[in-house]
Amino acid sequence: MLAQLTAAFRDLQIPLRVKLWDGKQIDLGPTPRVTLVVKDPSLVAQLAHPSLDALGAAYVEGRVDLEGPIEEAIEVGDALSTALLGDEPPPVEQHAAHDKRSDAAAISYHYDLSNEFYRLWLDRDMVYSCAYFETGEEDLNQAQQAKLRHLCRKLRLQPGDRLLDVGCGWGGLARFAARECGAQVYGITLSKAQLELGLQRVAEEGLQGRVTLELLDYRDLPQDGRFDKVVSVGMFEHVGHANLPLYCQRLFGAVKAGGLVMNHGITSRFTDGRPVGRGAGEFIDRYVFPQGELPHLATIARAISEAGLEIVDVESLRLHYARTLQLWSQGLERRLQKAAQWVPEKSLRIWRLYLAGCAYGFQHGWMNLHQILAVKPRDDGGHDLPWTRADLYS
């Protein structure tokens, strides 16, 4: 076994130590920073072709253990996969079938894991989306408040505005918009756990008269243009490529003429929406976001435009999300013992890899995140946006 690994790993010069179940070990570089402890002898053959999916699955299933900082394990794992597989082209995207039942099940799998688990490493408002770093020195609470403020400024929220929050999560943005901007907010989610805690926090802040949160599928949104503004954060990744036109049509139908629509979400690096290569995309689909599909910026922009909305502003927040995920990962790593009280060991292994791996992926440009602001033009083609962006930064 050791000879087989030695032959496969010859001259790699990667700071990794591989330790076998019998105590034998091999160093792939002079100063190993991470140790991969192989517990399953049948895994040795797979290590000669180490896709990120295979490596991640082996860790999740307990066939290997990792010794060393998780962020360094991700970096070393990518180096090992790159060295042995090269720039293997990602597979052609196989689009999942999305209907109300399967989408609700996928959302429940991810978001109904445990409110207490998420509370351990999210900010105090439990905003589970990319934060906004105005200087780069903010802590997580400051950066998430800045993100909520940035969204509301882009939407030019005014007292009395009727705001639709699609995929409202635990209600952090809904409460902020009501509390700080005086908006009347209607938020929808498919997560029962998120709704329960969101309603509790709305009541604790005395916002029942200004914030309404409900379980509702975006396909069932009212289409009478009753909302002045619409915001969707971290939601369209779950819609699926085939349903993007319908999703955008529902947002169009929900907002009044002259109203604004903000779509904030993760976008693919590839114009055809292929997943991340060397198995990273497959790992996320299998263990983290079932049925998740990332469209390229061009794809979602086309769907928005063809629905009748006019795109007026686009901002990339890729490095902001890399920093957000890094802070989330560090927060989870500091609280691993507490986290183990709220989720099974397998789930904890998934989330350790997912948060650290996504931080690495965003940092290295494997995917992006865009805020897209659009307007529903009035019949005369006009709208009420200011001539410049100066008001966003005043």
Automatic annotation (TrEMBL):
Gene3D superfamilies: Vaccinia Virus protein VP39. Residues 122-360 form the Polyketide synthase-like methyltransferase domain. It holds the Pfam family DUF7884. This is C17 cyclopropane fatty acid synthase CfaB. The keyword Methyltransferase applies. Keywords: Lipid metabolism, Methyltransferase, S-adenosyl-L-methionine, Transferase. The active site is at residue 358. PANTHER family: CYCLOPROPANE-FATTY-ACYL-PHOSPHOLIPID SYNTHASE (PTHR43667). GO terms for molecular function: methyltransferase activity. It comes from the Bacteria. GO terms for biological process: lipid biosynthetic process; methylation. Belongs to the CFA/CMAS family.
